[in-house]
Amino acid sequence: MLVTLEGLDGSGKTTVWEALGNEYPDAVFTTEPTGSWYGDAVRRSIDDDDADPVAELFLYTADHAAHLSRTIRPALDEGRLVISDRYVDSRYAYQGAALAGIVDRPLEYVRGVHLPWTREPDLTLYLDVDPSTGAARSGATNKFEQVEYLAAVHENYERLVESDPGRFVRIDATRSPEAVIESVENVLASTLDERS
Ligand code: TYD
Question: Is this prediction's pTM over 0.85?
Fold first, then answer.
């Protein structure tokens, strides 16, 4: 089963992902951007304030394709539980916002690029914080973390949650890390129970 963690910068995804590592020691824990050279290219682009948004979409997408073939699919084929800190919805939400004014219906465009070949998550835990909390917590250090941009990303996440309520579970991530971790662990445990 493939579980993904999504949310704005400053939503606490990485803290939750680390906590799940103790709870599910046999699961495969992975991230996007990945640690591969494709992920390195993505991180160079994140640090470049003049990066072209279309070029950046395809760097992230290349990283995702390699992530799928090298890590995700082999682990799922072995029957492992896979937990990814960010996955396709980060592209739909973030590049869907970055490409506004460049392509028509950017969120749909970015989804369309992925749909023929990606693997949808079975469960997506959406750590919901408002854009100003996210920007304040993340320190707004890179170009993606500005509050106006995060507001557009938040709106895209809302559209995604609305369009696929069976896959997304919204977690109120404005609470303490302990409370957020507890909610996530409860949702994950009950989903795993249902599927076993
Ligand atoms: P991430 O490593 O998750 O940063 P953090 O741990 O600080 O949340 O992601 C880095 C940045 O890249 C983040 O601002 C979100 C952005 N991003 C995209 O715009 N598209 C994507 O597909 C991914 C995976 C990340």
Answer: yes
Atom index in ligand 1 nearest the CA of residue 14 equals 6
- Give the CATH number of the domain where residue 151 resides: 3.40.50.300
The SS3 of residue 190 is: helix
| Cα separation, 33 vs 31, whole angstroms | 6
Q: Of all atoms in ligand 1, which is nearest to the CA of residue 94?
A: 19
Domain encompassing residue 130: 2-195
Number of domains in the chain: 1
For the stretch 99-142, pLDDT in tens is: 999 999 999 999 999 999 999 999 999 999 999 999 999 987 77
Q: Which residues line ligand 1 (CB under 6 A)?
A: 9, 14, 32-33, 46, 60, 86, 90-91, 94-95, 142, 144-145
